[in-house]
């Protein structure tokens, strides 16, 4: 058996290899842009890099308006408010908690809806069942870049008079039916957090084809100012800084390379993992464009004999910081766990997947050798399940 750290050997990697290591584009270009920012002494408040970034994102997404924001969560909060959502909004629980918090923060009730087991996105049939007189909207999440059933959700939203938003935090550069993510529903939001495929250190955006909505979001992200001294709407500070836009613009210049690297890594994982029983690599639809930013495994507890949580434990001991995205599901996090103690009963697919999935490192900071070593750890653990399990249990026993 290959030596494992839990058996006393040194970890496979001297330094930690994380999920979410940022993609960094051309440093010289970034530093030169930052120098220009300093020379101009224009650091934020709709500077020229922010405007250029917005134009580029809108062009690539094929949408009329891109309003940049300081992060994806604030972008979501602002557009939720700009659309006038209130009462209840239907969302998946199987997402990063920001999707639910953006509603709860404004005292709108997130109504957690189950997902389709194949696409991991909102199940339109389940959505339909959850609509009540208090429902004002639906927020679909294009989880890991896999898009929602936008047509079915659009049809329900139209028939029931609901607003439709998409949390596309993971899906910049992805397409559905050949159309780029960005212009589905009333609006979509993006995240440019450090861990995202394209990062602006921190950043986000609202994308929409609705001129009036775009104007309102613009006002709201800048305290409601319409010119000097003239506030015409309640607002907040959701602005993106120039240095963030400089990072975003620099990343955009390397976007094709980021995708190529992610795809190469993904194919390498596919090759290495194919022969390990009980481990399934989440597929990306071949006919669509994808950013391949997430390498997601579904672990069959019985077939692997060891299960997802123990696999993650062993990987961490080997300095591979795999993540259980998105465990345990928003409905099992506060304040939702206390508010909706029975929610899990309506979310069987979410509950099952939240206990089985893990994300592995990818991106420009790792290559074939690391991937081979990570997969070799997984293979060893699965091939020696009972022994590894006994070892982990012994290591937990009080001495
Ligand atoms: N909607 C969805 C579906 C989302 O996934 C997110 C964010 C949002 C909305 C909200 O968008 P933002 O407001 O964030 O723009 C991380 C990110 O903070 C979060 O942006 C992201 N989703 C989520 C999936 O992942 P954590 O709590 O897991 O972060 P943390 O600190 O544990 O870091 C994640 C991994 O990345 C670690 O393994 C370390 C590594 N890392 C992180 C940073 C910041 C680095 O290697 N370098 C870094 O600079 O949430």
Structural account:
By secondary structure, this protein is of the alpha/beta class. The chain folds into 2 domains: 123 residues, Alpha-Beta Complex (Aspartate Aminotransferase, domain 1), CATH 3.90.1150; 227 residues, Aspartate Aminotransferase, domain 2. 40% of the residues lie in helices and 14% in strands. A 7-stranded mixed sheet has the order 2-10-9-6-5-3-4, with helices on both faces. Helix 1 packs antiparallel against helix 8, helix 3 crosses helix 4 and helix 9 runs parallel beside helix 14. The model has no long low-confidence stretch (mean pLDDT 96).
Output the keywords.
2 domains; 399 residues; 15 helices; 14 strands; globular; 3-stranded antiparallel β-sheet; Aspartate Aminotransferase, domain 1
Q: Got a strand count?
A: 14
Q: On the 0-100 scale, what is the average pLDDT?
A: 96
Bound small molecules, which ones?
ligand T4K
> How far apart are the termini?
26 Å
- What are the secondary-structure elements, in order, as H or E? EHHEHEHEHEHEEEEEHHHEEHHEHHEHH
Please give a quick description of this structure.
This protein has 2 domains: 5-23 and 255-322 and 361-396, Aspartate Aminotransferase, domain 1 (Alpha-Beta Complex); 27-253, Aspartate Aminotransferase, domain 2, CATH 3.40.640. The protein is built from 15 helices and 14 strands.
